[in-house]
Each structure stands twice: as C-alpha cells, then as structure tokens.
Amino acid sequence: MDARVSVVETTKEIAGTEARASARSSFLKKRLGRFAPLLVLGALCLLLGLLNPSFFSLRNLIWGVANQAAIPLILSMGATFIIIMGSIDLSIEGVLCVGAMIVALLCTNDANSHHFGWWGPLLALLACTALGLLNGLVHVGLRIPSFMATLGLWFVGLGIGTVILGGTAVRVLDPHIRGIAFTRILDVPMAVWIAIAAFLLALLIERCTRFGRYVFAIGGGEDIAKLSGVPVARTRILAFTLAGFFTGIASLLASAQLGQANTTIADGRLFMTITAVVVGGTALTGGYGSVVNSLVGTLTVVVLANGMVLLGISPYVHETVQGLMIIAAVALSVRRGAQLVIK
Amino acid sequence: MAYDHTLFRAAVDRRRFLAGSAALGAGVLTMGIPRLARADSPPLLVTSIRSLSNPYHAVWKVGADAFAKQMGLEHVTLVTEGNSEKGISDINAMIAKTNGHMVLNVDPNNTPDARPIVEACAKAGVFVVTWWNKPADLHPWDFNPHYISHIEFDGTSSGAYIAEELFKAMGGTGGFVAIGGIISDSASIDRRRGMLAALKKNPKITLLDWQTGEWQSQKAFDITSSWLTRFGPKIKGIWAANDDMGTGALEALRSQGLAGQIPVVGIDGIKAAVEAVKAGEFACTVSSDPYWQGGIGLSMGLEAAQGKFDPSKEPKLHREFNASTVKITSANVDAYIKTQVDTHPQIDWTNLWDRVASPITYS
C-alpha cells in the first residue's frame, strides 16, 4: 500500500519536474529562436575573422560590409512591413529602375542637357512612392493578391525604363549626387549614414506608430484585426506606399554609387531583399518579425558575400554555399511551434 | 459575377465579331498579294534580337534602322525577351505574314534555336544570317542558298587581347584580379580562357583571384570592394569580361579614391568604358561593333535576295567566320569618339566580307 502511494507520488514528482524542465526548455528555445539570426551572424563573423583577420579591419567593415549593405538594408526596410503583413512586394526591381532613371535623367548627365540637381532625387522619391501607392491601390482596390499585383508593376517599371532608356546607360555627372557615394562623414561613406537614417525611421514607424502595430495585427490575423476596428485597407495601402518610398531612397543610392542608370541596375535586388528579410527571422506567413531582424538578415547576407571573396572561395561553389547558408539560417530561426501549416 | 458577365458579353459582341472576321478576311486576301508583287517590290527587313533593354542589342537595332533608312526600306525588329519559344514563333509568324518575302538577321536566343529558324527560312525562301549561337553540326552550306552566313566573334582572342593590354598598363609585373561573366555562359568561358592563356605568357604577372560578377555592374562593384580589403595595394589591375562589370569595378575604385591608379579593362565598347579609356581609367576595351552587326546582316540578306551575289558560290570562310573586333585604347580613343560615339559611323554596307577574320573552330 505504502509502496504504491510512493510510486504514484514519485511519478507525480517526475511529471512535475519534466513539466518544469520542458517549460524552461521551451522558454530557452523561444529566447534562442529569437536571437538565432543574431547568433548566426555573430558566428559567421567570428569564423570569417578567424580565417582571415582582415575581415575585422576597419576598412573591410566600412567598405566591404557597411557600404555594400546600405542599399539592401534600405530595400529590406520597406519589404519587412509588407512581409510582416503577410503580403509580398515583387515590384522592387521595376520601381528601383524607374527611380534611378529619373535621378539620372534630371541631374547633369550625358543623355540630355537637364541639370535640375536635387529636384531629380526628390522627383524620383515621389515617383517611387507613387508606384508603391499604385501597388497598394491595385492590391486592395481590385482585390488582386499582392503577389500578382506587384509582379505586374515590376514589369511595368522595367517597361517604362526600357521605353525611355532604350537599353542605353545614362551616366550621372552631377558631382553633388555622385558625392553621396564619395562624401565621408567620420570616415564613413554618406550611403551608410543614409541607410542608418532609413533604419531608424523604419524602427520608429514600427515601434511608435499606430500604423506599425496595425501591420502586426493584420499579419497575425486579418479577420480579427478587421473586427477589432483596424483600418485594414488603409494600412495595406500605406505599407505598400512606404515600401515604394524606401525603394526611392535606394534608387538614389544605386544611381549615385554606380554613376549611371540603366534597366539592369536592379537585377538581383529582389531575391537579395527577400532573402535578407527571411534570414533575419521575419516569418513569410506574416505577424512576426521586425526591422531589427531585417538589419541582422541583411548583414548576414552581405557578410556572406563579402566572406566568399575574402576567403577566395571558388565562384563555382558560391551559389551552393549561399543556398546552404540560407537554409541553415532559416532553419535555426524559424519558430516551428508557432506554425501549424508549412506551405 | 458582374465582372465575368461583361467580359463574356464583350467577347461575343456581334459588331466586334463582324469587324474581326472582316479584318481576318482582308488579311487572308492581302497575304496573297506579296507573292504576286514579289519580283519587283523589295523584301521586308527583319531583325530578331534578345531585348531592347541591354545596350548591346539597343545599338544593334540602331545600326539595323540606319541601314534600312539608307536603303529606303521597311524594317521590323522582333524581340525574344530571352524566350526561345517566342523568338521562333515570332519569326514563323513574320514569314507567314510576308509570305516569305523578307530577309532575316537573327541573334538566336539559344544554341538549339538556330536550327528551326534556319529550316523555316530555307523552306520559305528567306535569306538568313545568324550570329553567336548555332549547333556545331548546323552549317550554312547545308541550306544553300538561303542560309547565307553564321558569324561570331572570337572571345578567346578578345579575352587574351585585353589581358595583354592590361599587363602592359601594369608595367609587365604584379598581381591582378579578374571578374568573369555567368560561369556557364560560352562567351564568359572563352574570354576567361583567353585571359588565362595571356597570363601563361607573362610569368611576372599573377592572378590574385577570379570571381564571377554575372555580367552585372553592381555585383562587380561589391566584389571589387571586398577585394580591395583582401588584397589592398597588391592589386595592380582589374580584368573584366565585359564593360558593364568593368565600370562597376571602376566605380568601386573611385569610391575609395583609386580610379585612374589601377587600370581596368573590359569588352563591349560601351560608352562609359570608351569615356573611361579617354580619362585614362580604362586601359582598353574591345567592341564587336553591334551597329555594324545590325546593318551588315540585313545587307547580306538584301543583296542575296536581289541576286547581287550567290551565297552558295561563296567560299566556306565567308559562310562561317569570326568577325574582327574594334579595339579601343588611348591611342585611338579620340578618333573613335569622334567617328563612332558623337556621330553615327559611316559604314560601306556593300562591303560584305571586309571583317572576316578567322574560321570558327569547334572544340
């Protein structure tokens, strides 16, 4: 009799300990999951630093990493809000192309005699924002999935570029605009400061505005958000407009950095941006993530590309290594418990 | 629902249906006319290229338009947009529309595309010139007289030439880095092979690293930035498989205040590269002269169609050859800008074979 009681009690005790242990481990997992992208980035940096000490040289951190991360970071800021909302923006390359073209054609260039200086970037910013707004209006107004609406606008943007530029490259000769790529403040190129400002702006919008909270509410469950009085349509349109705005800033940097605009200026940007956001740990299903994650994700992708060159890895295996790193980074950061269906 | 309904109504609208059938009928009728008028009316000039959004094919079209204007003939440009299916079916549609009364200058989107295009042309009696891509066992002389020529440019010798120029600019000694195009691309493979061959001949030169910029300016910019930290002052020169990547590398140098100190070379002869040669930032570039390509292919077709020469009587070297390139260095850049960049070049389109350089070899 006594023995049986003690067995039961022991079982209970064991169960209790297990429950506590599993609670602790799930807490640990949660924490770990949250910081996994940062750990991946840290480990990657450490590994590269060990294999090639020049990775940590100031010159590499500024020119090899920060300067190269500037444009992808700005692009991923806009994309983050849209992905948190559970949508996607595929129009980045088309919009970027239009923006860069406007910058190049309005400032002093080798194709026409305009020199409107800073009006070019301003107009480019407006045009890109307007294209983002159009994305939102088409998506919400015509009830077309964001995937298709933005895919359409991607080609519209490239089409506009092809019609106007006709395949030629327009060179930016305005020294002030080129200066964005050359001017240094505290030894750090202007492009990096602009990217930092864009990041802070995005962080402010995410953390301190009603819009920022609405985006999470929509991504977490649009029907509930709607019932709770969240202006879903307006928030969606605003998010796409904001993405257009960030793409506009990136287009200015791209044309300043390369000193030209052509229709292929944005090739490969879409893949890099979405990869950066996802590697950072923002869920493609929506409702979870942050622009801080995207900062980490962008740095991971850029450090990886930089590291391949620093280590002299054969270009024949680059793509494979990059693909494996992406899978590894996402595998570590994805919150498996939170997702019921993996599509 | 209402949406679908209107669409459906639009589709069967009687007036539209009648108008459509009338147009179709007229089309069928007019299709017969060119056959009757074939002997005296000149053929339609047709160009088929990849896209109008890359500088190379954009200039190609300018050259083709200039030739057509000079001849006073109508010219149509078809664009594949990188889609072989589209490219082939557009050409077939054009052959059907003109009833074979046309000449074709085509840059096939992909190697296998050349065969169906050439077969369709030969069947319809269309004179055709192909560039860059064709299967090794497809030969112009097997489709006499309609398949006039297949023309390429020797990437190996261009890659070697710019490498030699780079080594000269480096003073014959030191390390350099090389940016290639898409790894599996045949132009990229050939140019790299040429560069490596030139490297072998210059034992004092070392290749520090080779990376692929996938033909993109931005990629080359990023790679060069990373190289500058990895190798620093050890880099004495940059070899790029095309000018777009070369200018990307140059901008990376410029952002670190090194433009003009480290020579860059590229291939294509795009405007930015030519101006960089003038500024002393590029050591040289090589152009296949797409303006000439756009016009000369049509000129060959037109002259053959007009019976001015018989392709089947031409030597094999004229039927399949590597054409010579235009080399641009500091020695001739001023003249080049004056005659080729500031104004449209004056080309004698009747001189069909003056750029035959060497036979094409198949590995």
TrEMBL record, chain B:
It is found in: Cell envelope. Coiled coil: none annotated. GO terms for molecular function: carbohydrate binding. CDD domains: PBP1_ABC_sugar_binding-like. Pfam families: Peripla_BP_4. One of its GO terms (cellular component) is cell envelope. PROSITE patterns: TAT. Gene3D superfamilies: 3.40.50.2300. Residues 48-308 form the Periplasmic binding protein domain. InterPro entries: Peripla_BP_I, SBP_2_dom, TAT_signal. Keywords: Signal. PANTHER family: D-ALLOSE-BINDING PERIPLASMIC PROTEIN-RELATED. Belongs to the bacterial solute-binding protein 2 family. This is Sugar ABC transporter substrate-binding protein.
